[in-house]
Amino acid sequence: MAAFASLTSSCLHGETDPRCLLQLLRLLNKGQQVVLPLFREDESTTKSISGMDLGRGGRDIFPSIEIFDAVAPYYPVHFTPPKNDPHGITRVMLHDALMAVLCEKGVNYETCEAVVDSGTESGDEIENMITLASRMMLERLDPPKASDYDPPTESNVDDKVDALRDLSTMFLPSDSKPAQQYSVNITRVPSAFLLEMSSSLARVHEEAVSSDNDDQKPLASAVRTFSSALAFSLELSANDTTRLWEAFVVSVTDRLSPTLASAPQGMHGRASTAYLASLAAGSGLATLNKVLSECMPRFLSLLSTLDDDIKGDVIDTGRRKKNRDEEKMSAAMRGIAALMSSCRVATDCWKRDNNGVQVHPHPLSTYTSCIVQRIAGVLGSSAGNHDEGSLSLAAVGALESFFTSVDLSTLTDEEMDSLDIISSVVSSVVLENIEERMDVDVNRNDTVWKTACARTLGAMIAIGMTQDDGSRLNASAKSLLPQCVTAATTTSSKSTTGVRQRYDWIVLAKACANGTERVSKQIVSELLSSIISWLIENQENSEDSLQLECFPAMVLSYLIRYGGSNVDAAFHCMVPPNTTPLDIVNALCKPLDGRNTDNGMNEEQMVVTRQLPVGMSHLQLPVSRAKEEETANAIIERAYSILPHLIPAYECPSSASSCESLVQLVDQILPPLSEWDEVKLCITFPLMTSILNSSNDVWNMLNDVTIEGLTSMVTYLAEFSISSDHETRSRSAAASSLFSILIHCKEDEGCNSIQALLENIVCSDLVDAASSLTQDLTAILTPRASCVPLESSARLPSFSRVEDTLNFVGLLGSAAACKGGTYSRTADAIAAFLVEMACNGNAQVPFAETAIHLAAPTHDGQKQPILDPSSHAYVLPAAAFGSMLSVHNGGPFWRQRMTHKTLPILLKALQAQAQSQNPPALGTLAVVCHMLCCLPAKLLGESNVRQMIPTLIAGLVYFSKNLQALTQSESISCKTSDVLSIILAALLKLLSISPEDLSKFIGIIIPSLLLLCTSTGSEKYIPKQLLALQCLETVANLPTRNAVLREKDQVVAVLSSVVDHPAFIVRQAVVQVRNAWFIL
User: Fold this and answer.
1) Rounded CA gap, 346 and 365, in Å?
2) Region for 51 from its dihedrals, namely left if φ exceeds 0, alpha if ψ lies in -120 to 50, beta otherwise
3) How far apart are CA 809 and CA 533, in angstroms?
4) In a 3-state reduction of DSSP, which class is residue 852?
């Protein structure tokens, strides 16, 4: 058997065929699994298997060295499969097979002894596959100076990260065996190797941290992760791996810790602090205690000079700072903070893995008193001065770690006195002089200092509120929390425009992040009550009142984003008598000025409640909107100024608990029968939409009653979305909700709700709208109506009606495509219909016998489509088709299917229009651009892309020469401006992925882009200008260098004239593009 293994490994030498190589590697690993357990690797082996002498002193040893010599040249694997490879062999497959051999994957070591610290009689360590392979991987990670290893040129960092990944595979327990505490492979290497590997890891980490290149950060993070994981696995079974743990952890700790006492501020000291802190955080209690015992006393002794300042008489502040090596002390203070944070992480993991059992005694209990003294020595001496130096900043950070990491119940009264003093200093920085300190100003030098104080104060409140035992810290937290909430919800007398963060907001966010759910619930409850109070106080129906910002809602939005998951849960679990989210909806629906509603109901009757009244006596009959239109609009505008701050709370997974009440509310007022139903829907639709579109997990948490309610309102949502009688923003939210319902709700076999909506609702509305638009355009474009100004088409309601209906058809097509299965045919029919309409102007409505015809452009309109209203109408179905392609939901193949159905229609239209001398039709041009932008080039096919490019270039040239007409066309619609945007977007994509296809058009593209760059239109034109500049910058890097160089002088000259553009963002882009052309 050993001879067979040797023979197999000898066959591997020089093998280059990946098929043979893969088979041989798998065969070798199979041989290891079967044969290796029969061998013993020491001299006392029982000769149970005779006749297998490999020539090594008569010992029967498995030929691991021969196998290693055969496979080592293939490590690391560098293999790129050829195009159209029929065998399907990848680099990952070869790498996995090679690692299986190197790691002896699947071998049962029960009959084999561990080789830890074992060796031959001559003193040489026994070489086995694990030892040899791990040394090879370590050499890849940390090549010695005399090494001949040549890392790949593309990324040395990635190569080292891969080496760490291979070492993890070798030595860390497999995820497939969670019960296994450590990998058996770690017992098959000597402790000397682990000592060497520990030193190499620390060295590689320091080199990565010291580098100015940000690309080295992933390597440093990977080193820390692997080191802590390996130390943790060694510590779990100390009886078997005690010597290995000592070699890996104790040695490096003893070697790095002396630097922390002499020069912690140096690069070596900072790197050592980070490495040891991560080692303590990710390992067990033994490693944590070892790191703390070696590092914490050194940091504390370095700060011992602070005691002299505290005990001495009044000393001049400048003299005190002079006597300190502040940079060194700041580094020591940050080291203490890092160790305390590591202790918190390690003890939390211990608590989680041991069913909530606390570590006793606490690992930091020995150092608590000294830490308090050192922090008080810095912050206590600066009371009233608000010292913002680096040492004070480090002390505030350490205080934050102290509150969240130390067992505060063990503090003495003297230590609590010191904490009270420094806590008052920190709270005064945040809470005193609210008007001066409320807004975070990035231009002020003390921003970092105040932010650190705010974070620390938040941590103190969180821990104090969590204790709830009547302690001094708990009493202090209970007194500070109301002050912070009041300060956070106080409106500044200064301008609040652009305010997105305040120091008091940071306090509350940190309190929620570090505290329990009860702390978050108390804060959120007070904020919801404050929102209700703000809405009651601002009931005036005036322009000034509507422009006020609701600070409590802004605080709530900030906490949702930065306060942790407890805030979301607290918001949605509110129940009476506390203020609930539904109470906010009620308050938003109240009429301003306390006026009665138009149906005679007072506020108490009008506001939605948790249980709506039912019966004929409560039926709300339709009334005219004109009667209370001003009040209704004021309510909607005020609500939409607050909803952006509330919507983040409805986008989290816990929002599913609030979905049922919103669905019940919407279900009872949809369709709206009164003006106030309309107001309620405008407010509730965005919230319900946020829940339904937040994530797929929300749909898994909805109960059957809620899903049934959502399904029942599909028809009403469709009618609401199409109707132009409703508010635009609420229609958009309703359509978004409908899309989510259609793709998530299951239907009975044979039912197709999307097709039913097309047949019963959309078809008739689309036919009527198209007929009305055709009649209106015909009336405008007839010779008899030549006196009618062109701009009159902009006021045609039929144009907007057709656009809304086609967009809704596109939404249904997107939902059908994402749903897949039998709905795919519906999606294909809708896509073909839209493309046919955009290219030819007429098509048959899907699943109906009715055909729709758009007004054909006149002869003059074909020559100048930008100013032709009929040509604008052709863009509408193209835009709807583009919205279908831009949806990201659904499976991976629906775009491929849709392309297969629609591409022949487009190519046929392109061939027909190629014979004309007129500019490209806007509808066909828009379809071309949408396909190029939204679909991969491989999906379209190279030949088809080449057929589309001439149309794209012709459209670019036409728009660049008719910019004045483009400005005039805004009076008709914004569709031509949208077409120019997608032309530039499609061009930019092709320049990036298929520059060779555009090489022959360079002489046409560059002048057209220059014309677009030099135009001085309105602010709405700036995005197009930026796209054109981006295209110019991409052209400068094209491989067709000669053609580009011919245009260099012209480009530089034209761009020089645009440098003085009024918009800063354009000037900045022009300078960047001009520099790119200068260096050609």
Assistant:
1) 15
2) left
3) 43
4) strand
For residue 529, which of 491, 607, 490, 583 has the smallest C-alpha distance? 583
Q: What is the pLDDT of residue 524?
A: 93
Report how far residue 273's alpha carbon sits from residue 398's, in angstroms, rounded to the nearest whole number.
Answer: 14
Q: Which residue, among 427, 618, 638, has the nearest Cα to 545 in the 3D structure?
A: 638
Q: Is 81 left (phi over 0), alpha (psi -120 to 50) or beta?
A: beta
What's the token pair of residue 1065?
């963002």
CB 456 within 8 Å of CB 392 = no
pLDDT tens digit sequence for 895-938: 899 999 999 999 999 999 888 888 999 999 999 999 999 999 88
User: Once rounded to an integer, what is the mean pLDDT over residues 789-815?
Assistant: 78
**Which residue in 602, 594, 730 sits closest to 666, CA to CA?**
730
**pTM given for the model:** 0.80
**DSSP classification of residue 647:** G
pLDDT score at 275:
94
Residue whose pair of structure tokens reads 């002489």 in the numeric block: 1003
Torsion of CA 818, 822, 823, 828, to 10 degrees: 100
657 backbone φψ class: left, alpha, beta (φ>0; ψ -120 to 50)? alpha
Residue 386 backbone zone (phi > 0: left; psi -120 to 50: alpha; other: beta): left
DSSP notation for 506-567: HHHHHHHHHS-HHHHHHHHHHHHHHHHHHHHH----SHHHHT---HHHHHHHHHHHHS-HHH
Confidence (pLDDT) at 178: 44
Cβ-based neighbours of 350, under 8 Å, separated by 6 or more: 284, 285, 357, 359
As a whole number of angstroms, the distance between CA 811 and CA 349 comes to 48
First-to-last alpha carbon distance for the chain, in angstroms, is 66
Instruction: Give dist(CA 5, CA 10) in Å, integer.
Output: 9
Cβ atoms of residues 84 and 94 within 8 Å: no
Strand 851-853 versus strand 842-844 pairing type: antiparallel
Residue 961 in tokens: 């020469």
- The DSSP result for 26-53, as a single string, is HHHHHHHHHHGGG--SSTT----S-S--
pLDDT digits (tens, 9 = 90+) for 227-246: 999 999 888 654 566 788 88
Phi, psi torsion values for 125, nearest 5 degrees? -75, 150
